[in-house]
Amino acid sequence: MTEPQNHMRRLPWEGPDGTAEYAPHGVTDHIADAAETHIINRARNDAAYALIMIQRPEITREDVCALVAKLAGHVKDVASVADMREERLNSPAAKALESALRAALGQS
Description:
This protein is mainly α and 108 residues long. It has helices at residues 29-53, 61-89, 92-104, and strands at 8-14, 20-24. It is elongated, with a radius of gyration of 19 Å.
């Protein structure tokens, strides 16, 4: 599915035509959550690897360029995950839950 709706979740991958993919909540939440976690962990691991590699005297300019390109891709992927999570936090259901919790806690 490619049409966003309030009861749909944007998935952390694109469809065959490069557009955002959506699925009903509950159907693929576990898979999507695991994919988001994998994206973030892969970025963290490669960032740690890059920091170690740039300390090695034998690293070449091409190696550094490859590391930068890989890390730039990870930044794009992690930013996409952040955007998706922001969408979920700003959904009507999340806002209603926030309001109910604030009311229960006596906050405005």
